[in-house]
UniProtKB/TrEMBL annotation, chains A, B:
Name of this chain's protein: Malate dehydrogenase
Pfam families per the UniProt record, alphabetical: Ldh_2
Family label: Belongs to the LDH2/MDH2 oxidoreductase family.
InterPro entries: Mal/L-sulf/L-lact_DH-like_ah (IPR043144), Mal/L-sulf/L-lact_DH-like_NADP (IPR043143), Mal/L-sulfo/L-lacto_DH-like_sf (IPR036111), Malate/L-lactate_DH-like (IPR003767)
UniProt xrefs under Gene3D superfamilies: 1.10.1530.10, Hypothetical oxidoreductase yiak, domain 2
Keyword annotations from UniProtKB, A to Z: Oxidoreductase
Organism (species): Cytobacillus oceanisediminis
Keyword Oxidoreductase found: yes
Length: 362, 362
């Protein structure tokens, strides 16, 4: 029997936490991974939400992730640290590295934390929000397995290495940038292919390196970096900081989560945390941010534009909406979660969204 | 009588240094500004080369730049500093801020230096090369006066705020990214307009916010950020770090160097310097960089591509070529420099490139 597809965010998070406990994670880490996935769904970044549960579990089962690993600080100074993720789930590694960064930044004004031996760490925004809560500016980068060619290349060499930056504001919604360094997500090309539609020139190249508008040919080829050589260069320095500098994989040595079942991913991350008070007082900074944001939003709008948005503003609204109205999941994902529930003797149906649940979680 | 247009880089730099001494800069600062301009010309970034001499002089003459100002560290901790440029020429401010950053990074592993009350600081690459000489990774950002609308906006609000990142390598050419956050430089649109050519859709919008292929209409409108909302967001966080966080101008409060003759520019910059040894030993890092770069360059090439290039590689070659063969300047720029020479009783003709000069400067 197939379940409804709308879920209460609190109860779905509890369900996911229970799943990861059954899979061998400590309670605290299981809850952290579940929180990370649900935050992505709430923000509408569905590709990084509970849809990832099955692949994370599969990599644990196949010995590609170590759910019992402890995260170690391998080398440190007052304002820097090199963290060894010891092949734990990426979001557990990421949050532990972030804690080190925020503590050092509080004590010394700034912290740079490099991370090696990690895995896919979810959305960058997840870490940004935690830093913003503590009045910190945070930059987060991660490398990823190969999907984009260098400018002039034919086949994937670089990942769509994400860049994320979070900045607190006063009354305004905080600034949250969380972007891949590709022009568009590969997912958009998959959708075009399924619909039999063409894609705009510039999104992708075919397997021989020719620009293509054919979605099928694009999927056999590579997605392209945002802004051509600019995106290539940005993706590359993210790989340098996350991979070359930390001792993690870089370029072709970051293994594909879906395809490589011989070795851990060896993803690298890089965190830069900034204590605002070291420059100007936090209250003054927040006033200036509010002024800046309100001035941008008050700019005259182009034809057919209703509102000028700040990075992260749409996602902020989605969170409010989905907390009140439930998280809608594709039926394929619900089916996967049902199978997982069955395997571990858990009950997914308890997390279905209804008015009663809604009141429970108020 | 009009002069030839090819100049010896060393002699032209001496000429420029003499010009800035005459304009009221201390010897050391005059030489620094000249060095910064010539480096840009050598790298082929002509828009930031000696062409800027006349506007810098004009702003000094009009009291918009203070050529006698000292740069002050207003606030500092072990790994952070807030620098007040006191409205000195931007490259003098920038180099002084960089010195603070490199010293702190050497002592404490990392340094974040914010700068306020500065002016146009030349190319980011100029600072990167100095950091690379000292085996440091450097990130440099600066805000700039308004040229790009936010996504959905109609008129300029953000600058094409540059992002620059430099990374040392071993035998390979170092990685040097120095990019504006616009899709293309406004200069390309000026050229299209002069030739009566159309520009590709996506480069710019007209003054009402409509996408345009008409170069004239584009010049009355705005250039667009690279990658749409991604470039908008990157430009914005550069403005936040350089301007909102430092107390410099931000958004509309960064004054236009060419148009505003009432107030200093109040440009802000932000430097992040990283001591590689705090993560992995510098020699190992350089080996990894060389491997990374050689693997990228060995990738299969797209049709009609001769070589896969690393960010900064073309500019590196140009420097070698122009040091040997002279710097070619537009006749308009030569004329401006001649007028400046006349005014200050200097002799530009001594800097003309010829075989004899070439041997002198070997």
């Amino acid at each position: 029997m197939s379940l409804p597809t709308r879920f209460d965010w609190v109860l779905l998070q509890e369900f996911c936490a229970n799943v990861f406990k059954k899979a061998g994670l400590k309670k605290q880490n299981a809850e952290l991974v579940a929180d990370s996935l649900i935050q992505a769904d709430l923000r509408g970044v569905d590709s990084h939400g509970v849809v990832r549960t099955s692949i994370y579990l599969k990599r644990i089962e196949e010995g590609m992730i170590n759910p019992a690993a402890d995260i170690e600080v391998e080398k440190e100074s007052d304002s820097t640290a090199l963290v060894n993720g010891n092949n734990q789930i990426g979001s557990v590694v990421g949050v532990n590295a972030l804690k080190v960064a925020l503590k050092k930044a509080k004590e010394n004004g700034v912290a740079l934390v490099g991370v090696k031996n990690s895995n896919h760490f979810g959305t960058g925004a997840y870490y940004l929000l935690k830093a913003i809560e503590q009045n910190m500016i945070l930059l987060v980068m991660s490398n990823a397995s190969q999907t984009m060619p260098p400018t002039g290349g034919v086949r994937p060499f670089l990942g769509t290495n994400p860049l994320a930056v979070g900045v607190p504001a006063g009354d305004a919604v905080p600034y949250i940038l969380d972007m891949a360094t590709s022009l568009v997500a590969r997912g958009k090309i998959i959708v075009a292919s399924q619909k039999g539609e063409e894609i705009p020139l510039g999104w992708a190249i075919d397997k021989d390196g020719n620009p293509t508008t054919n979605a099928e040919a694009a999927l056999e080829g590579s997605v392209l970096p945002v802004g051509g050589p600019k995106g290539y260069a940005i993706s590359m320095f993210i790989d340098i900081l996350s991979g070359v500098l930390t001792g993690a994989g870089f370029g072709k040595y970051v293994n594909n989560m879906y395809e490589n079942w011989e070795q851990p991913q060896n993803v690298g991350h890089f965190f830069i945390a900034i204590d605002i008070n070291k420059f100007i007082p936090i209250e003054l900074f927040k006033q200036r941010m509010d002024q800046y944001i309100s001035e941008i939003k008050a700019e005259p709008k182009a034809p057919n534009v209703d509102e000028i948005l700040i990075p992260g503003e749409i996602e902020h609204r989605r969170v409010i909406y989905k907390k009140a109205n439930g998280i809608e999941l594709p039926s394929k994902v619900v089916k996967e979660l049902q199978e997982i529930a069955q395997k571990y003797g858990l009950d997914l149906s308890q997390a279905i969204f209804n008015q009663k649940n809604k009141e429970v979680t108020k």
